[in-house]
Amino acid sequence: MRAFDDLVAEAAAADVTGWGFEFLDGRAAEERPWWGYVRQQADALSQSEAALDLDTGGGEVLAEALELAARRPSATAATEGWEPNLLRARSRLEPLGVRVAAAAPGEALPFAAGAFDLVTSRHPVAPDWAGTARVLASGGRYLAQHVGPASAFELVEYFLGPQPEARKGRDPEREAEQARAADLDVDELLTARCRMEFHDVGAVVWILRKCPWWVPDFTPERYAAKLRALDARLRREPFVAHSTRHLIRATRR
User: Fold this and answer.
1) Going by CATH, does the domain composed of 4-252 fall within 3.90.1150.10?
2) What does the alpha-carbon distance between residue 135 and residue 240 come to, in Å, rounded to a whole number?
3) Listed residue (187, 193, 197, 188) closest to 170, CA to CA
4) Are 61 and 145 in contact (CB under 8 A)?
5) I need a labelling partner for 236 at 20 to 30 A (CA). Which of 22, 37, 104, 133 fits?
6) Extents of the domains making up the chain
7) Series of mean pLDDT values for 10-residue runs along the chain (253 residues)
């Protein structure tokens, strides 16, 4: 394994835009939920005439699902709120006929009421149930894979210490209740807990830059002592954490 300073410097300089994770190839691993979200999204797109993908990131997941779809919707749109990802999503998705709109979490969706018969999202930042219900036509479907409670918290709490209140967030049953309150009938709710392994300290630095909400004040300099201790540990064994996910299918009443 390379020297600590080299691993950290490389990870601190690497690109973290979009939702690609190629930097982690051979350096970290994560099990995927058993239901196969991209395949589920592709099947849903095949049955849709007007589809919207929320928080699309760099458009990687939607582009893959469109490639797998037996047929594509007549109209497809996507939203993204972070400027670097927005630019990447437009360059990737617009050649596929997808309109990519700027919409940050919490902002009103820039679409007419009832404009879509399908809304999808892989890892929405903060589910907007009222906004989703508004843009869905009656009988329209919602399909999304959400991040679950205490996801990767072994790593989060290594840096921040115990986070008992934060562990209560993203509860799948609570989100299902919020969906029902917004006039969505929850047809299916599936959960999964998946093993993650990190094999070098550069992988940890990169993922904390990629997902800044995990450790909001993270910089390699601020957490240098923690990183050095972690590096010593990783030279003996991988750091194991667990991601949590839930799949929600719902229908607009």
Assistant:
1) no
2) 40
3) 193
4) no
5) 22
6) 4-252
7) 97 91 96 97 98 96 98 98 94 98 92 98 94 98 98 98 95 98 98 98 98 96 98 98 98 97
